[in-house]
Specification:
- By secondary structure, this protein is an alpha/beta fold.
- It has 5 helices and 6 strands, in the order βαβαββββααα.
- The protein has helices at residues 21-35, 51-62, 99-108, 113-128, 137-153; strands at residues 4-10, 42-49, 70-74, 76-77, 80-83, 90-98.
- Strands 1, 2, 3, 4, 5 and 6 form a 6-stranded mixed β-sheet that branches.
- A hairpin with a 2-residue loop joins β4 and β5.
- α1 (21-35) runs parallel beside α4 and α4 (113-128) crosses α5 (137-153).
- The longest helix is centred in the last third of the chain and has 17 residues, at 137-153.
- It is globular, with a radius of gyration of 16 Å.
- The termini are far apart.
Length: 167
């Protein structure tokens, strides 16, 4: 695999971004591209926002008037991407993560914030590459399997299963 430029910006003040998160995001982006056999140079943007900002973006771009954890804005379609004319890198798109929502979900799912942000990054990278789970079915299963494969490879394996025993 060639070079991957990950541009990370923090546009929220509510939550301090823990040390190592930026490196983790870069590792996640690299791992997804490696797993998918993506060999071109690539650029991706990751932006941290608050719940108010992600709700506004979700309303504007998806007509869903509620907060969400992450949004993906792909710049390519069917494996064809715009190219940065200065660097030759493929412009994959933008990832927007609600940090407060990620904190909330990490607590809800009883795992670390690192695991949650890693999951959201991997999930969004797959969207940037054309994967979709909105209609459920086999596409959703395939995407979940790819997410877990990548997360396991970078050391963020899920600690528990989706199965919950009756009490």
């Amino acid at each position: 695999m060639n070079q991957v430029k990950v541009i990370i910006s923090n546009d929220q003040k509510e939550t301090k971004i823990p040390t190592g998160i930026r490196l983790l995001i870069r590792r996640c982006c690299h791992a997804v591209l490696e797993e998918e056999g993506f060999t071109d140079n690539a650029e991706v943007s990751v932006r941290f926002v608050d719940n108010e900002t992600i709700k506004a973006l979700n309303t504007e771009f998806r007509n869903i008037e509620s907060e969400t954890d992450v949004l993906s804005f792909p710049l390519g379609e069917d494996g064809k991407f715009d190219t940065n004319l200065d660097t030759g890198a493929k412009l994959l798109g933008d990832i927007v993560i609600s940090v407060p929502k990620a904190v909330e979900q990490a607590e809800m799912y009883n795992h670390t914030l690192q695991r949650e942000i890693g999951f959201l990054t991997v999930h969004s990278m797959l969207h940037l590459l054309g994967y979709d789970h909105e209609d459920g079915g086999i596409e959703e299963v395939r995407m979940r399997e790819k997410e877990e494969t990548v997360l396991t490879k970078i050391g963020l394996k899920r600690d528990n299963s989706y199965y919950m025993e009756d009490e």
